Structures
1.
Amino acid sequence: MIPLKDINRSQSYPLITVFLIILNGLVFVFEYSLGQRGLLNRFIYEFGVVPAFFTSSKYWAQNGILLGLFPLFSSMFLHGGWLHFFGNMLYLWVFGDNVEDRLGHFRYLFFYLICGLAAALFHIVTNPSSTLPTVGASGAIAGVLGAYLVLFPGARVLTLFPIFFFFQLVEIPALLFIGFWFVMQFFSGALSFVAAKGQMGGTAWWAHIGGFVAGILMIWRSRNQLRRRISYY
């Protein structure tokens, strides 16, 4: 299922959402400029999250606290390819504006970064010995999805839905769309624990789950104050 837009009008311009998309785009262009000269791999390993590094005392002795923690944040703005980048930015564009509208610009930015941090930490906890670098905004965006689910469960999402060899445009309630997304992440993550190494690809399923749960928990306590009248069209 591919979300195209939500039928849920925002009351303010999504300044931070647009800023995040532009920033991710600029970083991705820089990644692309590194080409296949080995520079890209080095860049990804240096600024992506490698769980085995974070569980190594040698890593912390060499880098210290500030440099050691930096990849937890820098990894949110790196992507592994065009589909990875465009997929993440599409979800951020569709769901981010309404969450930003309810939280306010700077509170939304803080929320986004904390969800991304929670996602990275959850990935490290569930894959402590992995030497593969993890990159992407998916964990932070999963937190945005969690917040959207709490605030706008009845909002409709215009979705490109595959039916056999054809695609159909349908409006799906956010509760069903995001709920189905989470179920897929959970079962894929659970399967990754029992599958043979290498069969599940490089998707950090548990980072998605960690960011999603963090987003729900952070928004839940203040949901009544944040939930204003929703305008549909």
Note: The chain is about 65% helix and 10% strand.
2.
Amino acid sequence: MKGVHCYDILANPLYLDDFQYFTPAMEDREKFIIDDDDDEGNDNAQSDLVKIVLNLAFLTEKQAKEFSFSKDAYKSQVAGKMGNLVKIN
């Protein structure tokens, strides 16, 4: 990784498959995401959390302490109730 100022592991198609990540740029991505609940409004969380977890090291200390891996926390983030924790889309 010498000479690379940043690296997005999800730019590599092998890791994209391994992490089962679907980019927000993908048209109708929610049709490809399969999660284990009946709430169709949170399907994007499956992929969004992959991106967030891979970037946890770049959160501020305050953001890291406030971060939670719950569905409610994800909904709050999407609704903008947690401030600018992580840009999802």
Note: The chain has a mean pLDDT of 76.
